[in-house]
Input
Amino acid sequence: MNVHLSLLHAYPFERLRQLFGDVTPDVNFSAISLGIGEPRHPTPDLIKQAYCQAIEDGAGLAAYPATAGDIALRQAIAQWMHKRYGLTVRASDQILPVNGSREALFAFAQTMVQSEPERAKPLVVCPNPFYQIYEGAAFLAGAEPYYVASVPERNFAQDWASVPAEVWARTQLLFVCSPGNPAGAVMPLQEWKTLFELSDRYGFVIASDECYSEIYFRDTPPLGGLEAAVQLGRSGFKNLVAFTSLSKRSNVPGMRSGFCAGDAALMAQFLRYRTYHGSAMSPVVQSASIAAWNDEAHVQENRALYREKFHAVTPVLAEVLEVRLPDAGFYLWAKVPGSDEDFARALYAAYNVTVLPGSYLARNAQGHNPGAGYIRMALVAQTAECLEAAHRIAAFVRGTQEAQH
Output
């Protein structure tokens, strides 16, 4: 048995299940879950039609698909990147289709981390709070995670200056997430410049998780990692690979489709790994993915739904909690009075609303858990349901405050 498996923490949703294990919610309220970030807007018809048509046509089901994916899919992705970011990315060797960004982020760490028994464990640096796959990928690659301090006043952006030089010297891989999960911060160009300079100095690879890039609330779309590299005059995307997905953009989490793109030398090794890993995307999924990447109208409609929802819900919650509209993503990250676990448990019991304790999305580092005292709310359901949840949360907070006085 792989000894590193013992290092894995229980996944946040398993911890939440245990937290609620002996709680019976008030049956006078219908269940509303804001706990898991699973898109619930309808899947666009054009994607379903392309999927069904591919099945009807056979779509290469009688043959093994290539791990590198069909050139038509890679060209569709390259065209989308040009329209979205103004980038010229080669479909031949700088793009790989993947079975969702989660799968690829985990596998990428297994490819990039080199553990040597006679030397100190390599480090994988990641945000804190963070998407739990980063930590698990580090452990299973034989590395040790290093959790970067975050700055609550800057929407939990990372304090890169707090990382000691000796940590960077041992770092082989850096995970960044922009827009961030859970607080929704977008990394500005200056922050990317800092990370590129550190990567050049110490030689580590940057994996940029950008799966929330198409859900944003400002007029300007979030800056991407490859886009930042070009703006800063870097050629070839040295030591940089970006990951994104159709799950949030196109409401197809069950399709498991995304891509990664960047440094051709790294992509070649990642392709080599994936050939042995058996990570080829189904031809049917590829056909549906081409339809998704080629259409922007459904993405604009999806974004409009989230904007409407967040603009309706955020003011209701802001009356009772420290919460604000994020830069991007579909989470609200709110400061709560007292323990985040106690808050989530009591809210569930009183109003049958599920939220995720922020401490489950972070680790104790630099003397504290930065997620403690916060909750994450995934506004993935329809507006009416999310607004009902917001009113229940507001009533719960007001009721708690009155009871204390």
In short: The mean pLDDT is 96. Residues 297-318 form the longest helix (22 residues). The chain has two domains: 3-42+298-400, 45-295.
